[in-house]
Amino acid sequence: MAKQRYERPVLKPLNGNITNKFGAQAGFIPHTHIDGLAVHALTAKYGSPLFVLSERTIRETYRQAYTAFSTRYPKVQFAWSYKTNYMNAVCNVFHQEGAWAEVVSSFEYEKALHNGVSGDKIIFNGPDKTEKDHRLAIQNNSLIHIDHLDELYSLVALADELKVRPRVAIRVNMDTGVQPMWDRFGFNYETGQAWDAINKILLADKLDLVGLHCHIGTFMLASQAYRIATQKMADLALQIRKQHQHQLQYIDMGGGFASKNTLKGAYLNGADLAPSFADYAEQICTALFNAGFELGELPLLILETGRALVDDAGYLLGSVLANKRLSDGRRATILDFGVNLLFTSFWYEHTISPAQACSQYAEDIVLYGPLCMNIDVIRESVKLPPLNRGDQVVVHRVGAYNMTQWMQFIALRPRIVMIDLAGESHLIRDAEDLDYLMQLERVPEHLKKFDL
Amino acid sequence: MKLKNNIAIAENGFIFNAARGDSFTTNPIGIFILQGLKNNWDKARLCQEILVKYEIDEATCEKDLYDFLKMLKHYDLIEE
Ligand SMILES: Cc1ncc(COP(=O)(O)O)c(C=O)c1O
C-alpha cells in the first residue's frame, strides 16, 4: 500500500465563548501556480526565497486604473513612482503602457533616463535635489516639483545663470481631514504658504510654473480625501488664472491609493476595505470637472500611483526551515525569508498560502524569518495548515516597496523573476553573491594579515 | 501514558473531554495517534505505526509525535 502524505499532528482547542471575527475558517487553498508556472518548479530553477512578478497582473492593473480615470476625465497621465519598485523590467512595463517616470533622487532620475524615458516626461519630486540634479533636470527639460523655499531660490539663481526657464510645479500640502497630515513636504495650503510661493515664482518670472503637485499620504482608505484635495488644488489653479492671467498645464494628485493588503490590526480584510480605482477616480474627476475651469482650459490630470498598481503583481516564494514550540505553547514556523526581504510585514498582515497540497486542519502559528533578531517576525499569528520542513509558501501582494526597501542584512538578496504574458519566466535581477557584497569594500594594508 | 477515560473522539477529528467540558479538533494523523493511545500503544509503537503509514523520516516523526503528546498532556487528555 502506498504511504500517505505526512502532515504533523495538530491539536487545536475550540473556544466556545469567543467567536472568531471571520466566522468558520474555510479550507486552505494551496497556491501551487503563478501565471501557469508551478511554484515548486520556479524555486527549483531559481532558488528559494524568490521574488516573482506577473507582467500580466501589472498590465491588467494599470489598464484598470487608466480606464477608471480616462472614462471620467479627458486628459489623464500616469507617472510611474520609481521608489515603489524600480526594477528596470518593472518600470519598462509601465513605460510601455504609457506611464511617465516619477523620481525622488538622482539615481532614480538617472535610472529613468537609462530606461529611455525622455527628460520632459520625468517628474522630479522630493526634498533632496542637489545643484547637479537641478542642472541635469533643467538640461533635460524635466518637470521639477519644488519642495521648499531653498529649492525655489536656488532654481531661480540657476535659471538666471543658464538663461533658461525651467519647467516647475510646487508641491502643496493641505488638510484633507485625514491624519496624519503630511505637512513636511511642500508648501501649506491653509496657511497661505503655497500661494506665497506661487506669487514668488510668478513675480520673479524666471521659472515656468506649469503645474501644481500634491501627495496627501499613502494607503489612503478614505477616497473622499481626494475630493477635498482636488478642490483645493483646483482652487489654487483658478486663483492663478484669475490674478496672474496664467494658465497651468497640469494638476498632479500624487499617489496614495490603498492596495488590497490588510493593515496590521485592521478589523476587516484589505480586499474588502480598499476603495477601487473607480472610487478614487470618481472623487478626483468629479471635483476637477466641477471646479469651474473653462472647458478648453481643463488641466491635464497626472497621477503618481505606486503601491496600488504593483502590489498584486508581486509574490515572494519561500521554504520552511524548521518548526518549533515556543515556551508559551504556541507553534512557530521558521522560514527562509524574513523582514530583510519583506519590509512591508512591519505594517501589513500579508496573506500567506501553502504552495503544495495541504489539509483543512489549520493551527495558529507564528511565522519567523531566519535572521538572528527578535524583530524578524513575518506574522505574529496566522492560521495555516501544518507545514513540514522543506514545504513552500507563497506570500501575496508584495510588489510594492519590498524590492526597493529590502535590507542586505545577514542574508544576501535573492533573485527576482518576471513571468511574461506567454508564461515564460525571465530573470530580472540576479542573486547577490559575496563578490557583489564586497566590491565596494577596501581593507587598509596593515589590516590585511593576522595570525590566530 | 494513557488516554483518559472520559475522552470522546469523533471520526471528523472532534475531541470532547466530558470531565472538563473542553473540546478540540485534530487532523487525521492526530486521530490515528489518539486511536493508538486508546489501544495502549507506547511511544515506540506509535512512531513505528506512523512510519509504516506515512511518508516521513524517523527523526521528524519522533519530534512531532513528542510535541503532540506534550500538548495532549498540557490539555489534560492523557496521563503518564
Ligand atoms: C511624491 C510621491 N508620489 C507618489 C508616491 C507613491 O505613493 P503610493 O505608493 O502610496 O501610491 C509617493 C510615495 O510615498 C510619493 O512620495
Explain the overall architecture.
The complex is a heterodimer of chains A (452) and B (80). Chain A folds into two domains: 141 residues, Lyase, Ornithine Decarboxylase, Chain A, domain 1, CATH 2.40.37; 257 residues, Alanine racemase (TIM Barrel, Alpha-Beta Barrel). With 452 residues, chain A is of the alpha/beta class. Chain B has three helices and six strands; from the N terminus they run ββββααβαβ. The radius of gyration of chain B is 12 Å and the shape is globular. Chain B has one domain: Orthogonal Bundle (Arc Repressor Mutant, subunit A). In chain B, the strands form two sheets. Chain B has a three-stranded antiparallel beta sheet. In chain B, a hairpin with a 4-residue loop joins β3 and β4. In chain B, α2 crosses α3. The mean pLDDT of chain B is 91. At the A-B interface, β1 and β2 of A face β4, α1, β5 and α3 of B. β1 of chain A pairs parallel with β5 of chain B, so a sheet runs across the interface. Bound molecules: pyridoxal-5'-phosphate.
